[in-house]
Design goal:
The chain has seven helices and four strands; from the N terminus they run ααααββααββα. With 171 residues, it is of the alpha+beta class. It folds into two domains: 8-96; 102-161, bsu07140 like domains (CRO Repressor). A hairpin with a 5-residue loop joins strand 3 and strand 4. Helix 1 (8-32) runs parallel beside helix 3, helix 2 runs antiparallel to helix 3 and helix 3 crosses helix 4. The radius of gyration is 22 Å and the shape is elongated.
């Protein structure tokens, strides 16, 4: 019977810890600001996954108390805050934590070396172009792989309206 149901008290514990843990996590995330759950880089993604794992662990593991789970949240969010603070003030830390955007297509040419470094396939680029409403690549001036993994499409018409600025992009 333990496979399907252990006890009402176990279910009650999961319910209480789930609600209290959820409330604690939401409050801590509101206090820490929007940056905590942004999708700016791999570090932010890791923090988001770790928060979910911590939440699941303390809800289901009888050995972990609510206070310990909340402390886990505080440590993860605190470390994310410290690393974010350091990346603003230290170029070395910034280089370790953040990636740079990469130009992967420019002036009707795929930039194969950049695509290889970024591990992105031609088919993925073409899919993104179609998803953003472009029927043909001739209407696209440049495609940038952003630090969050998304592709930014810069159309030729945008280039005519405003000079294309690709400063800071790795080709």
């Amino acid at each position: 019977m333990g496979l399907l149901f252990n006890s009402w008290s176990d279910l009650g514990r999961v319910l209480v810890l789930g609600v209290l843990g959820y409330i604690s996590l939401v409050l801590l995330l509101r206090i820490s600001g929007n940056r905590t759950l942004s999708k700016l880089n791999a570090f932010d993604f890791i923090v988001t996954i770790a928060l979910g794992s911590t939440f699941g662990s303390f809800i289901l593991n009888k050995e972990i108390s609510l206070a310990e789970g909340v402390m886990g949240f505080i440590v993860l969010i605190g470390m994310q805050y410290v690393v974010s603070w350091l990346t603003i003030r230290s170029t070395t830390i910034k280089r370790i934590v953040k990636s740079e955007p990469s130009l992967v297509y420019y002036n009707q040419e795929y930039l194969v070396d950049s695509m290889k470094r970024s591990r992105i396939a031609k088919a993925e680029i073409e899919q993104s172009v179609r998803n953003q409403g472009y029927a043909i690549l001739e209407n696209v001036e440049a495609i940038v792989l952003e630090t969050d993994g998304s592709l930014s499409i810069i159309s030729r018409s945008e280039k005519e309206k405003k000079k294309l600025d690709i400063v800071g992009l790795k080709v």
